Amino acid sequence: MATEEPNFQILQQTEDYELRRYEPYRVAEVEVRGAFEGVGSEAFKILAGYIFGDNQGETKIEMTAPVNQRPVETKGLRLEMTAPVTQRPEGATPDTYIISFVMPTRFTLETLPRPNNPRIVLREEPARRIAARRYAGSWRRLLEALRRDGLQPNGTPIYARYNSPFSLPMLRRNEILVPLAD
């Protein structure tokens, strides 16, 4: 049985990356602090609890791919005033990450079960262009290729993992996803 992934259309393929247009999709995410290599385990336990039924209604949600990890952005943005006012933890540092599970397309934000754990946030990723590259480590080559081709990154790189941590390393599919300015 295939694992569901977000829907996207391939716009262009180059030697260095694939340019994609993603449709909107929903995520359950949690913010964790620690070393890049270690935060995934803590976050995975929290988010796995949610999809295995630790939610209002005790609904079991099927696992999808990828599991995304990105650093918390610390630069400020000017936005129009809205309500309610929310706040990120003060002094967010490079060792703070957002780990997210993609939710199945059968759910909307309104129909997703509410998490029992207050650390879990449900939200929708908007439709957007993303440059993607399979990786075995560094994302610098992707950023260099985007600059060369005149494409402007819009946000921090996302580390997308498509396989179970129990998969053999040489068989894993990992990607770097870089949101792009339209």
Compact overview of the structure:
It contains 2 helices and 9 strands; from the N terminus they run E-E-E-H-E-E-E-E-H-E-E. It is α+β, with helices and mostly antiparallel strands and 182 residues long. Strand 1 and strand 2 form a beta hairpin.
Can you walk through the features of this model?
With 182 residues, this protein is an alpha+beta fold. It has one domain: Alpha-Beta Barrel (Multidrug-efflux Transporter 1 Regulator Bmrr, Chain A), CATH 3.20.80. Helix content is 14%, strand content 30%. It has helices spanning 36-51, 140-148, and strands spanning 8-13, 18-22, 25-33, 67-71, 96-102, 121-125, 128-134, 158-161, 174-179. The protein has a 9-stranded antiparallel β-sheet with strand order 1-2-7-9-8-4-5-3-6, with helices on one face. It is globular and about 50 Å long. Residues 77-92 have low confidence and may be disordered.
Set out the fold topology.
Layout: E1 8-13, E2 18-22, E3 25-33, H1 36-51, E4 67-71, E5 96-102, E6 121-125, E7 128-134, H2 140-148, E8 158-161, E9 174-179
Antiparallel strand pairs: 1-2, 2-7, 3-5, 3-6, 4-5, 4-8, 7-9, 8-9
Q: Key features?
A:
182 residues, alpha+beta, Multidrug-efflux Transporter 1 Regulator Bmrr, Chain A, 2 helices
